[in-house]
Amino acid sequence: MIDFAVFVVALGVGSIAAWQVFHWIYGKKLLSDKKENIRVEANILLEKIEQVFKVVLAEGYFTEIYDHNAKKDFWGLFKTTNKALIIVKAKVSVGYDFSKMKFRRDADTRRLIIEGFAPAEVLAVDTDYKFYDINQGFVNPMKHEDYNALLAEAKAMIKTKAEGSDLPVIAANQLQLMMRQLASSMKWELEMLPEAKEEI
């Protein structure tokens, strides 16, 4: 009787072991089949080409900690809170759009006269975002549009901070130096009218 019991237990353990081995081998085959069937498609559309003459003359690197905390009241019965902490790292490029420059040339005296110049502007904001401490309300979860709005707001704040920094002044100094060197290399004299200097 004991031999029969041992036989039954051994048979049960063997069956379980065989099932595990079969499952492990077959499971690996399924995973490998899935990996082989992965297909990636990308469609890149070129919508528009424009000719521009914009020159970057100063770059600044910013880090912003953006703390979002929004509460929503539901009919005065209860409130839900959406919280997110975003760390934004950005490279801001400041320079000039030369298509906005007003100038004239005096070939007789070999002078390039700058009559007007648009002020330095933010030409590009390259950002990298990381989300931390996301806490969503059960009734009012954050949607894809909410994330996009948060990122747009954080980017706008970086741009405003860059415009109020020393970057436009540095870009203006670089512009004058570049224009003078350019005119000098062609044996021309550069003249900036007072209005143009004020705009820069």
Q: What class would the helix/strand composition place it in?
A: alpha+beta
* Mean pLDDT figure: 76
Described by strand count, sense and barrel closure, the largest sheet is: 3 strands, antiparallel
| Sheet with the most strands: spatial strand order | 1-2-5
Integer tally of domains:
2
What share of residues is helical?
A: 40-55%
Strand content: 35-45%
Distance between the termini: 103 Å
Cα-atom Rg, whole angstroms? 33 Å
Uncertain segments are none
Give the overall silhouette: elongated
Instruction: Count the DSSP helices.
Output: 4
Count all strands and give the number.
6
Secondary-structure element pattern, one letter each: HEEEEEHHEH
Protein name: DUF4230 domain-containing protein
Keywords: Membrane, Transmembrane, Transmembrane helix
Transmembrane segments: 6-26
Task: Please explain how this structure is put together.
The chain has 200 residues and is an alpha+beta fold. It has 2 domains: 41 residues; 146 residues, no CATH class. It is 40% helix and 36% strand. The chain has 4 helices and 6 strands. It has a 3-stranded antiparallel β-sheet. The longest helix is centred in the first third of the chain and has 35 residues. The protein is elongated, with a radius of gyration of 33 Å. The model has no long low-confidence stretch (mean pLDDT 76). This is DUF4230 domain-containing protein. Keywords: Membrane, Transmembrane, Transmembrane helix. It comes from Leadbetterella byssophila (strain DSM 17132 / JCM 16389 / KACC 11308 / NBRC 106382 / 4M15).
